[in-house]
């Protein structure tokens, strides 16, 4: 809009004000008439009309119609008269409601363990509403281990943050069910058969709304479940409360200590009169604890289902050493888990986790991604699409060649560690980012982990007297060097997406369905089908999991004719690929 148009509109508004003023005050009629472009000017003999002497017929408002703030009146307004004197305008009192004043006076003077700033930032990462994010400070200061809680049915066989959050958690679970079509279909199809009747499943996974749908599906199929968290930061407290209210024995809360973590696992396993016969693990910690503390339990355990790189690696080590005494199902390397949970899930959740914690802009940032497996591929694709300059480190020449063909520069970490803005680990290995690299990072470098294990970043080496830790917001720490340099460490080196944000529910539906089918297979398998070794999920089950999710997209599979099936040497109903086939 041009300056002339703005000035004209302002003048028009003031002229209208002048007309209204003339109606109320006859002494001001002359002024308003002179200012109005439509009024006939009253010109005495021998005088010139003001409107004819000025190039613009629209005059600025007279002094009597102008107002200015009077600094002596604390922001009040005053009228400027023609003679230059200032007359005070009637002052208007602002109304302050009593409850507003009382609310201001109620502002807390002492802050408990959870500061106000942390409470505010926490609300951005908690998945339930802000109303549920703020709990009584005394509740926050009390460890769940020291509280006696019972659900509405009087059952107290659980240990969670706050049972009162169950209603919020139930709504979260109901939302998750809408995006987990395969689990809901499996629950509906197999509920009458109860394929897990008699199964006593002890689980150690992330406790989220999506896991809750899996647990309730296992229960609907006949299983009894006891559960702990595999990550001290990923538990959704409201979901744990909803599960406890529903009768599940859950031992988990967000922000557990290391001691709490192992205590919760022990409470799941060690219950008089209850013996697990199936294990569902994510990371191998539950399996490790039973081997260490209760090895006799494996006499009645029919199998282990493991979904993580780290846990599967541990199982293969046990098998190689001849110490694996039950069959184990490697869910992590199933096609549906690798391609959808690891690749497509991380492609979306890496950006979500970084945005929620740091508000970083990705365009132009230099990022190094350590590892170009399925997780690394997803992270690199997302960051490249956002305009980041992405480097890749890799030990496998095949994955390294894939990175090069996808347009990424393959480097060693020490070659770029001084210049990159973000470091992301995706290997599942240990000591990928050691203290030497942390010392050489630039000021403000963001360091995070997308692999399962919390050993990729050498966080322990940062807990030394010369370094200062500063908690900025939930799951975000600044580690400050003596010279003032600081790095931004996310989730203390633990899994970024599940610790600091959320992951797409749909891809978790694929993984959870795979886990459920693996449990059903191992539990119902005739004796001798599976030996004391690690097995991949049968290809037929992988294809079945995928087919359960296709109706969501209104997708229609093409069916082979008898002639085509005979030509390819396939069964019309699958499996359609041999076990050695690579899905790229």
From TrEMBL:
Residues 342-503 form the S-adenosyl-L-homocysteine hydrolase NAD binding domain. It comes from Myripristis murdjan (pinecone soldierfish). Keywords: NAD, One-carbon metabolism. InterPro entries: Adenosylhomocyst_ase-like_sf, Adenosylhomocysteinase-like, Ado_hCys_hydrolase_NAD-bd, NAD(P)-bd_dom_sf, S-Ado-L-homoCys_hydrolase_CS. Belongs to the adenosylhomocysteinase family. Residues 29-42, 117-136 have a biased composition (Low complexity). It comes from the Eukaryota. Signal peptide: none annotated. The lineage of its organism: Eukaryota, Metazoa, Chordata, Craniata, Vertebrata. Its cofactor is NAD(+). PROSITE patterns: ADOHCYASE_1, ADOHCYASE_2. SMART domains: AdoHcyase (SM00996), AdoHcyase_NAD (SM00997). This is Adenosylhomocysteinase like 2. Residues 16-158 are annotated as: Disordered. Residues 16-28 have a biased composition (Basic and acidic residues). GO terms for biological process: one-carbon metabolic process; S-adenosylmethionine cycle. GO terms for cellular component: cytosol. Residues 107-116 have a biased composition (Basic residues).
């Amino acid at each position: 809009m041009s300056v002339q148009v703005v000035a004209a509109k302002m003048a028009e508004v003031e002229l209208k004000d002048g007309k209204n003023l003339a109606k109320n005050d006859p002494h001001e009629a002359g002024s308003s008439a002179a200012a109005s472009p439509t009024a006939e000017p009253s010109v005495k003999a021998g005088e010139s009309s003001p409107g004819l002497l000025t190039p613009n017929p629209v005059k600025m408002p007279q002094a009597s119609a102008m107002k200015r703030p009077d600094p002596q009146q604390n922001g009040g307004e005053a009228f400027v008269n023609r003679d230059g004197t200032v007359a005070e305008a009637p002052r208007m009192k602002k109304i302050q409601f009593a409850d507003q004043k009382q609310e201001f006076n109620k502002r807390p003077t002492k802050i408990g363990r959870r500061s106000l700033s942390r409470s505010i930032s926490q609300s951005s990462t908690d998945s339930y509403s802000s109303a549920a994010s703020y709990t009584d400070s005394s509740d926050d200061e009390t460890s769940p281990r020291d509280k006696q809680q019972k659900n509405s049915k009087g059952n107290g066989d659980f240990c969670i943050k706050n049972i009162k959050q169950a209603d919020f958690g139930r709504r979260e679970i109901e939302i998750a069910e809408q995006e987990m079509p395969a689990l809901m279909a499996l629950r509906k199809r197999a509920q009458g058969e109860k394929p897990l009747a008699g199964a006593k499943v002890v689980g150690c996974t992330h406790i989220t709304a999506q896991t809750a749908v899996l647990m309730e599906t296992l229960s609907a199929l006949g299983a009894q479940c006891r559960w702990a968290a595999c990550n001290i930061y990923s538990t959704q407290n409201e979901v744990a409360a909803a599960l406890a209210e529903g009768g599940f024995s859950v031992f988990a809360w967000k922000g557990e200590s290391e001691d709490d973590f192992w205590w919760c696992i022990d409470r799941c396993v060690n219950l008089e009169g209850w013996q697990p016969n199936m294990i569902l693990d994510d990371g191998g910690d539950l399996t490790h604890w039973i081997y260490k503390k209760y090895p006799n339990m494996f006499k009645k355990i029919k199998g282990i289902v493991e979904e993580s790189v780290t846990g599967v690696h541990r199982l293969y080590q046990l098998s190689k050493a001849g110490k694996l005494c039950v069959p184990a199902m490697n869910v992590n390397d199933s096609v549906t888990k690798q391609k959808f949970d690891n690749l497509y899930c991380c492609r979306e959740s890496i950006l979500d986790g970084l945005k929620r914690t740091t508000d970083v802009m990705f365009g132009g940032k230099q990022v190094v991604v350590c590892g170009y497996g399925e997780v690394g591929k997803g992270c690199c694709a997302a960051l490249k699409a956002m305009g980041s300059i992405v480097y890749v480190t890799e030990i496998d020449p095949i994955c390294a060649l894939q990175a090069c063909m996808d347009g990424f520069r393959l480097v060693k970490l020490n070659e770029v560690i001084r210049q990159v803005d973000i470091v992301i680990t995706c290997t599942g290995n240990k000591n990928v980012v050691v203290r030497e690299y942390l010392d050489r990072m630039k000021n403000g470098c963001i360091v995070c982990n997308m692999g399962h294990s919390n050993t990729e970043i050498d966080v322990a080496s940062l807990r030394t007297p010369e370094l200062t830790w500063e908690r900025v917001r939930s799951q975000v720490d600044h580690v400050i060097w003596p010279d003032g340099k600081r790095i931004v460490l996310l989730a203390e080196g633990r899994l970024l997406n599940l610790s600091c944000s959320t992951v797409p529910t749909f891809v978790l539906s694929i993984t959870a369905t795979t886990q459920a089918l693996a449990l059903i297979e191992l539990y119902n398998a005739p004796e001798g089908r599976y030996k004391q070794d690690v097995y991949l999920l049968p290809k037929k089950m992988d294809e079945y999991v995928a087919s359960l999710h296709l109706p969501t997209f209104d997708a229609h599979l093409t069916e082979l004719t008898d002639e085509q099936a005979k030509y390819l040497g396939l069964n019309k109903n699958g499996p359609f690929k041999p076990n050695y086939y690579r899905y790229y």
